[in-house]
Amino acid sequence: MKALAVKPSEKRISTSIKLNKKNRDFAKDFFKKYNLTLSDGINIFLAKVVMDKKLPFELEIPNKETRKAIKEAENGIGTYYDSVEDLMRDLRN
């Protein structure tokens, strides 16, 4: 399938996608600052993928140590700090 340039006059279709509410709300506010809708933002992302034939950012797979740390954090294992100051105080000791 050949990718075509996006033209403003092209017919748009409606689709349904499931989004994380927090991310959707943030993105809506973000795009609003640029006078864009969420739909505009998603279309810009898709156009960039079509033009470059790749994701517009690098995807990294966490290594074994990072995956372990993520799992521990999700399970409440480890030390938590109420502030950066508390963390820094602990690091200095």
UniProtKB/TrEMBL annotation:
- List the InterPro entries: Arc_rbn_hlx_hlx, RelB/DinJ
- Reply yes or no: does the keyword tRNA processing apply: no
Which GO terms are recorded in the biological process aspect for this UniProt protein?
A: DNA-templated transcription; regulation of DNA-templated transcription
Q: Which domain of life is it from?
A: Bacteria
Q: Which UniProt keywords apply?
A: Toxin-antitoxin system
- Signal peptide stretch: none
Q: Which family does it belong to?
A: Belongs to the RelB/DinJ antitoxin family.
For this entry, the protein name equals Type II toxin-antitoxin system RelB/DinJ family antitoxin
Source species: Candidatus Acididesulfobacter diazotrophicus
